[in-house]
Amino acid sequence: MPKITESQRETRRQQILDAALRCFSRDGFHNTTTADIVRESGVSQGTLYLYFTTKDDIIVALADDRRHGDALLSALAQSEQDAVDGLGLLLEFYGRSLSDPNRTDSRRVSIQGWAEALRNPAIHASIVGNTAAVRRQIAALIARGQADGQVRADVDPDGVAQTLIATFQGLTLQASLGEVIDLAAIGRTMDGMLLGLLTPAGRAAHA
Amino acid sequence: MPKITESQRETRRQQILDAALRCFSRDGFHNTTTADIVRESGVSQGTLYLYFTTKDDIIVALADDRRHGDALLSALAQSEQDAVDGLGLLLEFYGRSLSDPNRTDSRRVSIQGWAEALRNPAIHASIVGNTAAVRRQIAALIARGQADGQVRADVDPDGVAQTLIATFQGLTLQASLGEVIDLAAIGRTMDGMLLGLLTPAGRAAHA
Amino acid sequence: MPKITESQRETRRQQILDAALRCFSRDGFHNTTTADIVRESGVSQGTLYLYFTTKDDIIVALADDRRHGDALLSALAQSEQDAVDGLGLLLEFYGRSLSDPNRTDSRRVSIQGWAEALRNPAIHASIVGNTAAVRRQIAALIARGQADGQVRADVDPDGVAQTLIATFQGLTLQASLGEVIDLAAIGRTMDGMLLGLLTPAGRAAHA
Amino acid sequence: MPKITESQRETRRQQILDAALRCFSRDGFHNTTTADIVRESGVSQGTLYLYFTTKDDIIVALADDRRHGDALLSALAQSEQDAVDGLGLLLEFYGRSLSDPNRTDSRRVSIQGWAEALRNPAIHASIVGNTAAVRRQIAALIARGQADGQVRADVDPDGVAQTLIATFQGLTLQASLGEVIDLAAIGRTMDGMLLGLLTPAGRAAHA
DNA sequence: TATGAATGAGACTTCATTCAT
DNA sequence: AATGAATGAAGTCTCATTCAT
Q1: Which of A194, B62, B92, C181 counts the highest number of beta carbons within 10 A?
Q2: CA-to-CA distance for D116 and D126, rounded, in angstroms?
Q3: Please, which positions of strand E sit below 7 A from a protein CB?
């Protein structure tokens, strides 16, 4: 007989996570104190530990947040017909992710998550697992393109997927470091790279 | 009136930095104590502060280590003749960087440096500065290729440079997270991407 | 206007005390949290405070538990005829107390009560009061023996009583520390001590 | 190449232990904060942890303090000739221990040590070990008396030793609880008990 | 120059207690 | 009466940095 409903609990938990995200983004994980999160979230010190067992647990929870990756995956899944269209969707999705001002904190915290993943198995698993799902999906898309004859047979679908992901990880880093990301230019470049690589005649993308 | 020579001092300093690199790689920056570095380096607690004013100063020094980037730059500079050859050199250099077991600690610490750069201006400047130099050099190489007619005129040299760097940053991350980096596969993929993008006819690389 | 009967209330209270006794015995008073008692007793956190105003109040209640001392006193009171028989009864009673496996928790918590009594007046009063009653009763028994001529006139009844109690306190401690208590051997020793001390000719006990 | 000598270190350590003893005696172990010990000892918070790894470690060190037990043992060892004299020495020694105002804190902390010993193996080992040594020595003394014909052959040396120790433990408790310890009366009682028990004719002690 | 003992501010976490439901 | 979520004060321990030797 719980005193609060599951949804109230979830709301409270999210309220803490949102506050933590802002704090971590602003000050970094290790320079954020639980007192900071408490102040930012409006809950009490004790309540924090009613929802998370540990400060580390909070980052893990942030890293585990599948909402973003899931959106990508389902976007990709929709493009079951055409591989090239699917890749276009992918570029678009990532492009938005890179520049969406609502995701600034998310991007900055991701980078801290990478650093933590080097020594925190839970975060490591979360990141690697999330990446692997996307990578499989992209590789499958390319393989489908090969089966359809849309994509050259001699490219390695998984290698391309891995490389694409790496590129977006690097761009995420650069965006967070304040490098200007000219989405149009990057988009053209990546379009050109992919189509040059994948299409039999190097036909222009979307053209 | 220094009691030790400049070179003795430099040796000592490097000894501390080497120890710090091992510690940071193993435990992360924030989970490494100055006591750890002292233990690993063999110098005393007090001595540490004769060479670095602050623990943060040690990461800054590691981030500032230009030795690696400089090697890349000079390698690139040598290929003044042929843009395509220059890019080949670049891929080779980065490929080695990614897989060189002697650079494992370096790669891991780089990632932590990225996280620190978000809030430490000195590290930020160091990373961004280092990247910018490489990026300029690559863009120049491509522009030279365009001037020579080797490279398509409608590509954006800087966009390509930025993208390339991003990709290698992402691969560095993946390597440190334990993802298998199949250098041959990645190399073929990147070769294909670059040549598909850059060369007028999408001619095969090095073929 | 109570919503539960007095006996329901008493049952509930005892249920909490029993749980607390197990917890305190296992983990010590200060390492037992109210949450532990809640878990062990099956009542809720809030309910605990309907029955006890404070965690300290729970130990006080346990220390105040007169059931054991009362049993001793009434046993002693029954032996109004013969002092030597009365002392025999006493040894028997204490011997059982020391070895009764049902009283293991009780003994362990007693020792913690001693430590608490040093700074908690209520517990102090409870322990000292309980001891004093027993001590008076024993001294009275001996004095009666002196009046009857059963016991040497030159012994100090109160000194003997105090010493006897001390011995049993020490044995309680030793039992709880895991020392083997050979009841037969201890019984013979104490029998010998008492009779050697008390009886005019040092006649053998119960012989 | 230590900066302080072993003896300086030992002095500092003892200074902390002395302060801790006062604090524990006054407020109890669990109601003493490390801040209290720091205040009372005059060292800094950090220094405390240079000498003890843990707050628990401080009690263990206090329990481990063999100085008192050793004094008793060597006193007993001196009385190699006469068992009855040896026991007299023992009573005297314990009598002084019980009433020595310089040992008030020690006695109070002992009782807390008993409570801790129930769940702290190091303290348990310390107390039990210390007691065992004394017990062996007393039993040996009595056995020697039996060999000499001074002591009745039918008493159990170890049982007597254990009982004696128990009595003094109990008296320590009572003394700390504020019970008046009339040393003369207790001494006569114990003298009578021991001699009634041990001597063939129940001859008067020291008479 | 080098040392390492000392410092003390501050972090994370626990837990007795309360109170709205 | 009973519940259990919420509270926040407080405690232990760590660690970057200093400074007398």
Answers
A1: A194
A2: 11
A3: 1-20
Distance (Å) from the alpha carbon of D134 to chain C's nearest alpha carbon: 14
Pairs of residues, one from chain C and one from chain D, whose beta carbons lie less than 8 Å apart = 159
- The CATH architecture one would assign to domain D1-53 is Orthogonal Bundle (1.10)
CB neighbours of D45 closer than 8 A, spacing ≥ 6? Answer: D34, D35, D38
- What's the CA angle centered on A73, arms A69 and A74, to 5 degrees? 120
Tell me: the pLDDT tens digits for A85-126? Answer: 888 888 888 999 999 999 999 999 999 999 999 999 999 999
Return the minimum-mean-pLDDT range out of B110-119, C164-173, C185-194: C185-194
Give the integer Cα–Cα distance in Å for A167 and C153.
Answer: 103
Alpha-carbon span A40 to A20, nearest angstrom: 8
Q: What is the DSSP string of B30-54?
A: TT--HHHHHHHH---HHHHHHH-SS
The answer to whether the beta carbon of residue A2 comes closer than 7 angstroms to any atom of strand E is: no
CATH topology of domain B55-205: Tetracycline Repressor; domain 2 (1.10.357)
Nearest residue of A to residue B23 by CA position?
A: A119
Residue A121 contacts strand E, CB under 7 A? no
Q: What are the domain boundaries of chain C?
A: 1-53, 55-205
How many Å apart are CA A203 and CA A169, to the nearest integer?
27
**Distance (Å, rounded) from C-alpha A108 to C-alpha A112?**
7
Phi-psi label, residue A206: left if phi above 0, alpha if psi -120 to 50, beta otherwise: left
* pTM exceeds 0.90: yes
In angstroms, the Cα distances linking A70 to A60, A67, A121, C114 are 17, 5, 21, 61
- The one-letter amino acid code at C151 reads V
Determine the Cα–Cα distance for residues C21 and C30; give it in Å rounded to an integer: 13
Both tokens of C125, joined, read: 């009063």
Residue pair B194/B205 in contact by the 8 Å Cβ criterion = yes
Whose tokens are 């006062």? That residue is D22
Q: What is the pLDDT of residues A18-31, one digit of tens each?
A: 999 999 999 999 99
Measuring from the CA of residue C46 to each C1', which nucleotide is nearest?
F3
Distance of residue C32 Cα from the nearest chain D Cα, in angstroms = 12
Q: Which residue has the tokens 């500079």?
A: B77
